[in-house]
Amino acid sequence: MEKYITSGVCSPEIHFEVENGIIKDVVFIRGCPGNALGISSLIKGIDIYEAIAKLKGIDCRGRGTSCPDQLAKALETYINK
User: Fold this and answer.
1) What is the pLDDT of residues 15-34, one digit of tens each?
2) Domains, the chain
3) Long-range contacts of 9-13 (CB under 8 A, 24+ apart)
4) φ, ψ of residue 68 in degrees (nearest 5)
5) What element of type H or E holds 11?
6) Of all helices (H) and strands (E), which one includes residue 27?
7) 45: helix, strand or coil
8) How far apart are the C-alpha atoms of 42 and 15, rounded to whole Å?
């Protein structure tokens, strides 16, 4: 399981697992439970590049980022390592 430290959102970190380019699991630590569980459920089984395209740039209340956007950044970091 990969770990990503977030910035600018309620959830301080995201744990995720990718296998053969497919997202297998996503867990947001703290944050908004309903939204985090919803995002996690919807994103499982999706190609990592498709997930990034869908989530990148989503803003939460003018913060310039959001939990979905932070997940996209986590996935990009994973790809680029």
Assistant:
1) 999 999 999 999 999 988 89
2) 2-79 (3.30.390)
3) 9/60, 9/63, 9/65, 9/66, 9/67, 9/70, 10/67, 11/36, 11/67, 11/70
4) -60, -40
5) none
6) strand 22-29
7) coil
8) 15
